Amino acid sequence: MKKVVFSALIAMGAVTLSNAQIKLDKVINTASKGVKALSFSNEDAKRLSKEAVDWMDEHNKVANAKSPYTKRLNKLFAKHKNEDGLTLNYKVYLVTDINAFACADGSVRVFSSLMDIMTDDELLAIIGHEIGHVKNEDTKDAIKSAYLKAAALDAASMASSTVQKLNDSQLGTLASAMLDSSHSRKQESQADDYSYEFMKKHGYNVMGAYTAFKKFALLTKEKPTTFQKMMSSHPDSEKRAEAVKKKAKKDGLWNDPGEITLPTKKK
């Protein structure tokens, strides 16, 4: 499996971008008024998110309908395609990165390497968290930030007060920036709360949220250069696990899982 792909055009244009850095700074500075005045609606967020996800679907290996990954995800989430007033769609990327993300248009993408190390209950908790970001409109903030990065090389886009259509190169940059974007710790905590309530509402085992966070803590120690970077904007995984434990005990749902370890084989 490969790592998730962003844009070949980004790599090919690295020298050009480097040589144009001074010009880029000038463009950003002169267009700052336009950026501040940018009109960015929910529909803009959904449209750009769909374009970015479509780009990523095209440039990454997506598990087909016969894949065990797709069958497993469908089994878990088929009944959640319409959840809490949201219309959602799910796919699996066959990549080595350990991640999952959701977008303002309701697209949820789960990486196969994450599925390899998580139980069904843990996946439910993780994707419940991602749904929380969509419901709380955190994904709108993320795509707006990503759009500004993608449009940074285009003076017309930066200076405009409305969202412009992006070309293929900019879509690659948008996709990369969207995955690199981070939510605030408050937003992450609120998404954790949403996930816990999502699990309770549907009668799932809330312990999945606890053990998922414990595994994230282990991954942070084992993969400090990659996974830790992704998790740097999130609250501490051990503290998140303890928050779930506190809620579960209060609700009479706590069941000590014992020592948590990372699996050595695929689930």
From TrEMBL:
Residues 235-253 have a biased composition (Basic and acidic residues). Binds 1 zinc ion per subunit. Keywords: Hydrolase, Metalloprotease, Protease, Signal, Zinc. GO terms for biological process: proteolysis involved in protein catabolic process. Residues 228-267 are annotated as: Disordered. GO terms for molecular function: metalloendopeptidase activity. Gene3D superfamilies: Metalloproteases ('zincins'), catalytic domain (3.30.2010.10). Pfam families: Peptidase_M48 (PF01435). Its cofactor is Zn(2+). Residues 1-20 form the signal peptide. GO terms for cellular component: membrane. It comes from the Bacteria. Belongs to the peptidase M48 family. This is M48 family metalloprotease. It comes from Bergeyella cardium.
